[in-house]
Design a protein that fits this description.
Blueprint: E1 11-13, H1 14-17, E2 19-22, E3 33-39, E4 48-52, E5 65-68, E6 74-77, E7 82-83, E8 92-95, H2 102-116, H3 128-132, E9 135-137, H4 144-168
Parallel strand pairs: 3-7
Antiparallel strand pairs: 1-9, 2-8, 3-4, 5-6, 5-8
Length: about 170
Amino acid sequence: MKAEATVAEPTRPIGELFELAAARSRGLGDYGPGPVPFVTSAEANNGVVAYVTPLDGDRVFSGPAICVSGLGHASVHPGAFLPKGNGGDSLTVLLPPDGFGPLDLVGLAAAFNVLHRWRFSYGRKCSLRRLAALALPAEPPDVAPVWRDEAARAQAVTRRVLELDQRLY
């Protein structure tokens, strides 16, 4: 049986797809409680470890945008957020051009995690320079069908739990 040739989708360097920006903030302990998500390299809760009141000199970003941690994990942030920007765990923010919606960013962040996350570690942190030349699909992957499938599965589980609950009570 003859193997079919696959054609790779066109890609573009991240530095051409996005405006790259360095985070600028202090350590979490310097902040009081507030309304702005403080995003770090943590993967749980989309990197948000607290809600803080930004300080003078901080760089608060307006989403939707992608944050890439020093360890190479990409996450999408829909509204205003303050990325960690001090020490060795600084985040890089990928600011999208007009025309990229939130689902486009989810698809590109997922593509980044699959394609490039392995490149970074505590010994080789992600940086503006290292990110700029890495390639992503020129057209964002269509993730809408995945979201619809997940929603349908969640609704089916919810219906089943409600059915079982009615039988028990």
